Amino acid sequence: MVDLEKYQTIIFDCDGVILNSNFQKIEAYRKAAISFGANEQQAQALVNHHVALTGISRHIKFKYFLTEIMHQAVTEDAMSQLLKALNEQVLNLLSECEIAKGLSTLRQKTKNSKWMVASGGDEKELNHLFKEKRINHFFDEGIYGSPASKHEIIEIQQNKLNFLPALFLGDSLYDIQTAQKYNLDFVFVSGWTDLSEWEKICEEGGIKTIEQISDLI
Question: pLDDT tens-digit profile of 49-64?
Answer without folding.
Answer: 999 888 888 999 999 9
